[in-house]
Amino acid sequence: MDFDDSPEEAVWRDRCRAFLEAHAALKPERVDWGESYWAKARTVEEEAAYDLRCRAWQRAKFDEGWAGLTWPEEYGGRGLSSHFAAIFAEEEGRFDVPQGPFAQSIGMAGPTIIAHGTEAQKKRYLTPMLTGEETWCQLFSEPGAGSDLAGLRTSAVLDGDEIIVNGQKVWTSNAAEAAHGMLLVRSDVEQPKHRGITYLLLDMSTPGIDIRPLRQPTGRAEFNEVFLDDVRVPVENVLGEINAGWGPILTTLTNERTGIGGQSPMVDDAIELARTFGVAADPVVRQDLARLHTIAATVRFLGYRVRTAASRGVPPGPESSVLKLANSRRLELSGNVTMSIMGARGTLYGDDAEMSGFWQNYAFLGQWMSRIGGGTDEVQRNIIGENVLGLPQEPRPDKGVPFKDIPV
Ligand SMILES: Cc1cc2nc3c(=O)[nH]c(=O)nc-3n(C[C@H](O)[C@H](O)[C@H](O)COP(=O)(O)OP(=O)(O)OC[C@H]3O[C@@H](n4cnc5c(N)ncnc54)[C@H](O)[C@@H]3O)c2cc1C
């Protein structure tokens, strides 16, 4: 690909900068990660204030036509190619603006509804995502169905023009704040497991939903268990067809992997940490930092590749698994390298630690966000093995077997 802007792209980049400069300040040359979201556990009030700032910034973008750049114009977007959105994201990344709780809504639910939704669903849901008024959560994983998502057992029974849902979801990020959920249910146990699943758009204020927070090792509780007890969902909230949820599911998962894979590297900060600890000349540390630099560059170029494909109208495919896997490797390495640079001081936490525990939280404990969330590293390797390298498929003894006959 060509890394330089075309004349049209250069004009667009200037317009992006003009908007951003009018509304936000540039990030300082050296970001103080010790003050960032990833370093410190915040109080409930601080979390709420941050959430408001995120929504205000999203609203400001929407009001001036900078939200949903690739989304259709009739739902509040701009109908542009993803190349232009990528340039805006690059420029926005240089500014000190709050990046909010929109990964599940704008990053995942939106593209899925655009691809599979009815006209009424697009009209109802898309614009409030872009304005930041309504956030979403992803009700996919269950206690017995994570990697093997098609093994999900939350039940759905049709009752007139409603579907009655019973079951439990788990690891549901940001469920407590979400207005809606992407909910997967087992609607036909007579069919094999990848069929007989229905994708529902769930109003999270529906009676029968019980959300219970789960505390993480970082001290935060973004995760939740969600219990669904006789929850009634109107049939008009089915996304796609009843029993044919697997197509929309793949759209959501591919967008999720692309989003997780696209996070920014911080190699310079790790190098600075080595200088602070007086080990920048240590040959082993230098070798580790060189490895980190290499994997960070790989992630960046893979990101360009995914975006270039998208700008040519090719939707993200298995390369999003490669990107996500490379990003997991980057986070794993940055966690291990920075902990080894800090030595015994790496065991400190919170205000006692270097940069208020940023490296401990973001890179060391946080690596599991990418290594497990959105599909584990092992599952990404399976996808790459089968769909990219053409290796033989994993044995699937339950293939074609009616779901009700698969042993629990
Ligand atoms: C930060 C974070 C956020 C999340 N947010 C959400 C959310 O908002 N909504 C939601 O629905 N879920 C969410 N999840 C859940 C996540 O999708 C699951 O944890 C993940 O899919 C793994 O499922 P599991 O935990 O059941 O592990 P399991 O599937 O039980 O896997 C256990 C181990 O076995 C390995 N394994 C399983 N199958 C295979 C195989 N076929 N080949 C090789 N190895 C295999 C796995 O790699 C793993 O090491 C989140 C998870 C994290 C970490």
Features:
408 residues; alpha+beta; Butyryl-Coa Dehydrogenase, subunit A, domain 1; Butyryl-CoA Dehydrogenase, subunit A, domain 2; Butyryl-CoA Dehydrogenase, subunit A, domain 3; four-stranded mixed beta sheet; four-stranded antiparallel beta sheet; 8 strands; 43% helix; globular; binds flavin-adenine dinucleotide
- The unreliable regions are none
The end-to-end span amounts to 48 Å
The strand order across the widest sheet is 1-4-5-8
CATH topology of the largest domain: the name is Butyryl-CoA Dehydrogenase, subunit A, domain 3
Bound small molecules, which ones? flavin-adenine dinucleotide
Number of helices: 12
Question: SSE string, helix = H, strand = E?
Answer: HHHHHEEEEEEEEHHHHHHH
Fraction of residues in helices?
A: 40-55%
Nearest-integer average pLDDT? 91
Q: What structural class do helix, strand and pairing data support?
A: alpha+beta
Task: Characterize the main sheet.
Answer: 4 strands, mixed
What is the CATH C level class of the largest domain, in words? Answer: Mainly Alpha
The CATH H-level homologous superfamily of the largest domain = Butyryl-CoA Dehydrogenase, subunit A, domain 3
